[in-house]
Structures are given as structure tokens and as C-alpha cells.
Amino acid sequence: MQLCIDAGNTLIKYALFKQRKLVHKSVSNEFDLLLIQSLIAKYKPTTAIVSSVRPINKTWLKALKQALPVLLLTHKTPLPIQLDYKTPETLGRDRIAVAVAGFSKYPKQNTLIINAGTCITFDIINEKGVYKGGAIAPGIEMRYQAMNHFTAKLPYVTKRAPVRITGKSTNESLNAGVLNHVCFEIAGAIQFYSTHYKKLHVLLTGGDSSFLAKRLKNSIFAAPDLVLTGLNEILLHNA
Predict the structure, then answer these.
(1) SS3 33
(2) What are the backbone dihedrals phi and psi of residue 107, each rounded to the nearest 5 degrees, phi first?
(3) Each residue of 93-114: pLDDT tens digit?
(4) Is 32 a catalytic residue?
(5) Which residue out of 6, 32, 84, 94 is catalytically annotated?
(6) Do residues 127 and 108 touch, judged by C-beta distance below 8 A?
(7) Which of 149, 152, 199, 231 counts the most CB atoms within 10 A of its CB?
(8) In the CATH scheme, what architecture does the domain 1-72 have?
(9) Where does 76-239 sit in CATH, by number?
(10) Numbers of helices and strands, H then E, in the chain
């Protein structure tokens, strides 16, 4: 049994895998030592991997390392793919994980992975297993907050389905500008990469993936646990 921990900007996810089968997933806002101890006691994993885009609580990490062997993901961790990136030390660990997961799902095929979370990231891995880089854009919630924060009069509105492309009120216009145009961006990115990479597969993951998948007409595959799947693949690769 393997324990995979993904500490994102907003949430921390804990997953237990039996080889490549996901058997349990938990979520917390902060590093939760009691939750970790209960998961270890119940599932008895023999190894763990931690990926974090936020500072790691040292007490929490020390306690985890005392319980079982831990692989802390960095750009130097041996991977089943090659990183073609000028500054690999700055590459988000979640982006590394989804690239590995994409190559694992579609080996020897071109794959674009779109991770719609706090930020929306686009990552491309080619048929040779080479990670070629990608793009980072503001996520849905970040756009709503930014328009409210950096203007004097625009309100903060909650996420909801836009009723039309052209808004007839300020709230409708904000929703149309965020939700419709995120979909336009994603569709445009898919079209661009499809012209440069033959027979491109597209994977959509992240907290907003299910919401966006219903509104995108492109042939994409929604995979909500792709970061965890990639971490598990990296852990198995290093076993």
C-alpha cells in the first residue's frame, strides 16, 4: 500500500493506493498529523510520497518520516519522463505529477494536461515521454477575486453558470467574462496544441474540472485525481 500526499495551494489531499488502484482519499485544509496517523494505522502503507507547492510543516514531516519511508518530490527525483524545462527547480510539483500521470495513461502518445485549480495550468508531454513545458493562467476563483479587489465598484460574485455570452447586468457580465472566457481559453489552447502535436489526447483535472468539462465541447477526458495518480506512479518508479 502506498500513501500519496498532494499539498496544493488551497487543499491537501491524502490518497492510499494498492499498486495502481485508488482505495481511499481524504482532504484537509492544513497538514493534519492526526489524520495521517489514523490513515497509517488503518491502511498500513509501506511507503509514502509528498508533493507540496506550499511550505511543509517540519513537525508534521518529521512525524511522517518516523512512521514510514517518505519520498519528498523535487525536480531531482527520478522520473519515468524527461523534463525539457529551463528552470526545473521552479517547476510546480503538481505539474510534474500530472505530466507523469498523463504519460502513464497515454504512453508513447502526445498528451495535453489541463489542471483547473487555484491556477489553470497547461502542460504538454510528447510521444517520447518528454515534458515540453506549458502555461499558467489565473483560475476561476482568482479571477472573481481579482476583479473585485483591483476595482472600486465591481462586486464579488459567486461562481455560477453564465446565462448568455453577453451579460445584461454587471453580475451577468462578470460571470460571462470569467466562465465563458475560461472555456474559450481552454478551447483555444487545445486547438493550438492540436496543430503542433498529432493525435493529441487531452486530460482535464483539478477542482473545477467537472464544472468545466460540462461546458467544453472538445474531446477531453476528465480525471479529477490526476495529481495523486502521478505521485503514485513516481513512487512506484522509485520503489
Answers:
(1) helix
(2) -65, 140
(3) 999 999 999 999 999 999 999 9
(4) no
(5) 94
(6) yes
(7) 231
(8) 2-Layer Sandwich (3.30)
(9) 3.30.420.40
(10) 8, 11
